[in-house]
Design brief:
Rossmann fold, four-stranded antiparallel sheet, 9 helices, 38% helix, globular, binds adenosine-5'-diphosphate, binds magnesium ion
Length: 240
């Protein structure tokens, strides 16, 4: 999928947070957004997915050339867009497997149940997710790191064409960062998945091949560059 973001302005509760972002992600490309807290990274991520608490006041988001700003969240998901939440919600009473299976049914109705089960089994193992978690309520009482891994499990089942990953590495221990990075890489290779990855840390990027780095500040992308920009941020911070 090709995603194009054109002069995007996004507000929450009448406050403008994203103030004119331009970004283009081609099939299979890995783009990284870094930037200080409160710069609007999560708001941008949620706006691409169509989060109902946000309104796009100007600009456009195109998926394979077609505007999706008026497309509902579930229809964006069916197009192949996936959002991994920075702070995944806990839903007591909603079984993780029921949730995964319902999502699989809506997005990949042609996927056989046994293939779904083996995908869950494989990915649970690859991600070192404790088996007992799969039998519990969605994220309920899970640790921060466990929640992040469950998001990755969802991605593995749903096989999106474009994954927006909002700090997939935060709250993970060193080994888990590597595991998660490898999982993302594998899906990227297998499915030509495009990625928009938001992170504060260069560690996860050591295991990946980020092609495009963007620094977001005060609601806009202040600087674009290649891998070198990561080192620049590591040494100088965001004073660009
Ligand atoms: N639903 C909301 N209502 C009001 N303000 C919000 C809302 N969501 C985010 N904000 C504000 O927008 C700014 C950017 O937030 P966010 O997009 O989460 O930044 P980042 O992910 O870069 O840290 C923050 O000041 C935050 O408090
Ligand atoms: Mg954020």
């Amino acid at each position: 999928m090709k995603l194009e973001i054109k002069d995007l302005h996004v507000s929450a509760e009448d406050k403008e947070i994203v103030k004119g972002v331009n970004l283009s992600i081609n099939e299979g490309e890995l783009h990284v957004i870094m930037g200080p807290n409160g710069s609007g990274k999560t708001t941008l991520a949620k706006a691409i997915m169509g989060h109902p608490e946000l309104s796009v006041t100007k600009g456009d988001i195109l998926a394979d050339g077609k505007s999706i700003v008026n497309t509902k969240v579930n229809d964006r998901a069916k197009l192949g867009i996936f959002l991994q939440f920075q702070n995944p919600v806990e839903v007591e009473g909603l079984g993780l497997m029921n949730f995964l299976n319902a999502a699989r049914g809506s997005i990949h109705s042609d996927m056989q149940f046994k293939d779904f089960m083996s995908e869950v089994k494989n990915s649970t193992k690859k991600l070192s997710i404790k088996e007992e978690l799969v039998g519990r309520s969605l994220n309920f009482g899970f640790s921060g790191g466990e929640k992040k891994k469950i998001e990755m499990l969802q991605m593995a089942v749903l096989k999106p064409k474009l994954a927006i990953l909002d700090e997939p590495d935060s709250g993970l221990d060193i080994d888990a960062v590597k595991t998660v990075a490898e999982n993302i890489n594998e899906l990227r290779q297998k499915n030509k998945m495009g990625i928009l990855l938001i992170t504060h840390y260069s560690r996860i990027l050591n295991y990946m091949e980020p092609q495009f780095i963007h620094i977001m500040k005060d609601g806009v992308i202040k600087k674009d560059g290649g891998k070198d920009l990561i080192n620049e941020v590591e040494t100088k911070g965001y004073k660009l």
